[in-house]
Sequence to fold (415 residues):
Amino acid sequence: MIVRVHAGWLVPIAAPVLRHGWMDVDTARGDIVGVGAAEAPSERQADRLLDLSEAVILPGLVNAHTHLELSHLAGQVPPADSFVAWVRAMLAVRFGTPAAPAAVIGAAREAIASMEATGTLGVGDIGNTDASVSPLAASSLWGVHFREALGLRPADATRLLEETRLAVRRTHHTLCAAGNTRLSPSCAPHAPYSTSSDLIRGLASGYEPARAVSSIHLAESTEELVFLATGQGPLRDLAADRGAWDGTWPTPGVGPVAYLAQLGVLHHGLLVVHGTQLRREELRMLASTGATLVLCARSNRWVGAGVPSVSEVFASGGAVAIGTDSLASVADLNLFAELQALRDLAPDVPARSLLRAATLGGARALGCDALGVLAPGATSRAVVRVPPPAVTDVEEWLVAEASDTSDLRWLDDLL
Fold:
């Protein structure tokens, strides 16, 4: 059945906003088959009409970086004055009295439900385990589950790489056996300060049989810059305290982007997360590689790492996506709240650019071709919002004033 949907606003993302537009949806296939303006009606015959009046339709948002397996830590790790202080507190809570597996899975399921309720359709989920895979597979979300590994001792790299790839293969087999095509597994190195160079090289290309994308935390804190430059500082102390330091890790002596460039791992399928400490020239260098920078500004502030230079990030011309990080370092996983925080940090960045980062930017970074746009071939699971009557710039309203999502509905539910 073809349903023609009329709405006051259509936000296609890859094309200009349409005032009083229409969208044809094939409800049997669950995808969009046509989009247009009111003055350019479709030649296709629709079986039914759905008039959404002055509502706005936009693609489901993409949370390009979160840790769903840490959802059970919500409210247990307070904001900190420094990144390493926060990490120590988080590790103490997570491993001091480990939560039961059922509690971890249940918290991940609740977190996913909150994401669905606030407009998220795509996700880049990072996990040291597969605790979130079953809840994700049972949800409406599309995306990638990254099995993350870390280990600073060079001698451990081969073993850790084999273990990680084996875990990803098992996840891939399980998803394929269940016929799940919305979720793909891949692998990811944690960060340059926690992962040896050989392990970074081995994981940063992703897991090609499923999805050749990967992720790495980068330039998140000043402590990271010190450690990469000198091999000293609070991060070395942390590694030593946790038994991860044996003195064999060679100090790079360069900045984080230069280090990854030396390792030859910067590519268009790599999600570089945080970038709080990146300078202008590093942002431009990163942009030239095609890697996507994922901003998680609210989390950065929570963990004592500061906030990214949002205006310079967008001015660099590189690919940008948006994430929330985990409930251990942010109050909620609401991407509209994340957009509002970015708008506060960068009032000069066009609303259209921020919306693109929260939709198409994340979709492209994760390799989810059916997400991020309103266009023929894209999924019809789109977000429906109801702006106040006085709104004339709907994109600005969405990024600056729409964090209360009580009005939000999904188009396919309405259909």
